[in-house]
Amino acid sequence: MAEKFQLQVITPERIFYEGETSFVEMNTTEGEVGIYKNHIPMTMLIAPGVLMIHEDGGVKEAALHSGFVEVLPDRVAIVAEIAEWPEEIDMNRANEAKIRAERRLKNGEQTTNIMRAEVSLKRALTRLEVGKHR
């Protein structure tokens, strides 16, 4: 069995998760990362994606959006704009957001709007991916 480390996920509204894990996976602006105990210290920016927390009883999944992660050998701290468990996701709202973002991208709006539409689309797709596991 892999060694455990402390994981804390904090959002502006709450402490989303606090506990021990043997492995955590997430998306960053540099790509997908997986972290075990004794990882080298580093910080990374979070990209919208699925957070996977490996515990003794299985894997917990959550939607994770913008923020950053601090990795130390014995603990990982994630500060996120939004983190949602599957049962917290409104699938209809996520699907509507996906449709709106796709429409904005198709219409080729201004560059700044395209960037926002791309982020909105990634968030919606993440929510739909996590929400289907309820």
List keywords for this structure.
single chain, 134 residues, alpha+beta, 5-stranded mixed beta sheet, 5-stranded antiparallel beta sheet, 28% helix
What does this entry look like structurally?
A hairpin with a 2-residue loop joins strand 8 and strand 9 (75-80). The two termini are 27 Å apart. The protein has helices spanning 91-107, 111-131; strands at residues 5-10, 15-21, 23-28, 31-35, 42-46, 49-55, 58-64, 67-72, 75-80, 83-84. The radius of gyration is 16 Å and the shape is globular. Helix 1 (91-107) runs antiparallel to helix 2 (111-131). The protein contains two helices and ten strands. The strands form two sheets. Strands 2-1-9-8-5 form a five-stranded mixed β-sheet, with no helix packed on it. The chain is of the alpha+beta class and 134 residues long. The model has no long low-confidence stretch (mean pLDDT 88).
